[in-house]
Amino acid sequence: MNFFTFIYIIGIFILLNIFEGFKEISIENQLLYSSLSILLFGIPHGAIDHIIFFKKRNITQLKFYLIYLGLIIGFVLMWHIAPVLSLVLFLLISAFHFGESQFEDIRLNKILKNSFYFFWGIALLATLIFYNLKELANVTAYFDDTLILEKVYDIKNVTILFYFTNIVTLSSMIMLFIYKKIKIERLLSEFFLLFLIHVTFYLFPFIIGFTLYFVVLHSLKVMQDEIEFFKKDNPNSLFWIS
Question: Which of 89, 161, 173, 223 could pair covalently with 126 via S-S, beta carbons 3.0-4.6 A apart?
Answer without folding.
Answer: 161
